[in-house]
Design a protein that fits this description.
By secondary structure, the protein is an alpha/beta fold. Helix content is about 25%, strand content about 15%. It has helices spanning about 20-25, 30-35, 50-55, 75-85, 95-100, 110-120, 170-185, 250-255, 275-280, 290-295, 305, and strands at about 5-10, 40, 60-65, 70, 85-90, 135-140, 140-145, 150-155, 165. It is globular and about 65 Å long. The structure holds iron/sulfur cluster (SF4) (2 copies).
């Protein structure tokens, strides 16, 4: 008798689609996954419907990999449904893990976002000042639209999460290893982030050029300097968040001459990635003079967006109103 293969699922919520690409980028290794498991739900690639999932017995999916943050009532419902149907629910990618780029919307109120999108944007043409209704009546009949909630949340702020696959998007090696690990006989400790628990600097090809002490009079953007391709980017004044970011991506951005922006979140011992990155960067400022320090800090464009680019919803401050 042939043994039934374990079932896995992929789903997206508030997502750019990059995490779906990351699954496809696994390339021929996806065959190892397909050989080991049946994909029973993957709306971006396969024609399954929500009703198909509703009919599955609870707990019958071994692992669901859910990417994207949670912003709407529909996303919250799908997270709850897939939680019920899955033995392991995996937050896949920065948005699901920490709130990600969509989480930067938490710097604004729901009302100001709707105002900007439906009325104020230069490309918006809305003379009748129409807003989507709940429900919406139009020529197709009555539609019930998902509710756009007050703020963006990471997946574990909505349902219980078993594992996290970090990255924006996660690198193919991390994805393949994570999937095959969960299909194996020895699943990792619940709550694990499925990537090495150390700072990116430890696997960076430029780590030997990183000085023990860095002292900076200004921070630079990549387009402002001729970057030395062999030297530590931070030592060149570029805001590289490698010291406050979890390893596992093999420093792909740094290899491409771009500073790390922190998408894999912080290593396990760090509670607050933004604060850790901010304090690591502040300690490099080469001045004791208050006004000079202010001038140096002014060379950091958009500090909140830089240090909390991927982690605002999961951070201690949550959003600018702190709720
Ligand atoms: S983690 Fe990055 S790639 Fe994945 S959905 Fe979010 S923004 Fe897109
Ligand atoms: S700071 Fe950036 S460039 Fe320097 S060693 Fe760390 S990851 Fe590499």
């Amino acid at each position: 008798m042939t043994r039934e293969k374990p079932k896995i699922a992929f789903y997206w919520c508030a997502s750019c689609g990059g995490c779906e690409e990351a699954v496809v980028d696994v390339a021929e290794q996806i065959l190892d996954v397909v050989a080991a498991a049946d994909i029973v739900f993957w709306p971006v690639a396969l024609d399954f419907k929500r009703s198909d999932v509703e009919q599955m017995p609870d707990g019958s999916i071994l692992a669901t990999f859910l990417n994207g943050a949670i912003r709407t009532s529909e996303q919250e419902e799908m997270a709850g449904l897939l939680r019920r149907k899955s033995k392991y629910l995996v937050a896949f990618g920065s948005c699901s893990h920490l709130g990600g780029i969509p989480g930067l919307a938490n710097f604004f109120t729901r009302e100001s976002i709707l105002q900007a999108v439906y009325f104020d944007a230069p490309t918006t043409e809305n003379p009748d000042r129409v807003m989507p209704g709940l429900p919406l009546n139009d020529r197709h009949g009555e539609l019930t639209l998902p509710y756009f909630s007050d703020r963006v949340r990471s997946l574990d702020q909505v349902v219980e999460v078993d594992y996290y696959v970090p990255g924006c998007p996660p690198q193919p090696k991390i994805v393949t290893r994570a999937v095959l690990t969960l299909l194996g006989e020895h699943p990792p400790t619940k709550g694990s982030v499925l990537a090495p628990d150390e700072a990116l600097c430890t696997e960076c090809p430029r780590k030997d050029s990183k000085p023990d002490k860095i002292a900076l009079k200004a921070f630079r953007r990549p387009q402002e300097i001729q970057i030395d391709e062999t030297q530590c980017l931070l030592a060149q004044g570029l805001l590289c968040l490698g010291p406050a970011t979890r390893a596992g991506c093999e420093a792909r951005c740094v290899e491409g001459n771009m500073p790390c922006t922190g998408c894999c979140g912080a290593p396990g011992r760090v509670r607050e990635q933004g604060a850790k990155a901010l304090s690591a960067i502040a300690s490099l400022i080469d001045s004791q003079d208050e006004s000079e320090i202010d001038q140096i800090l002014a060379t950091i464009p958009d500090p909140a967006g830089t240090f909390y680019r991927y982690s605002l919803p999961a951070s201690l401050i949550h959003n600018k109103r702190g709720v």
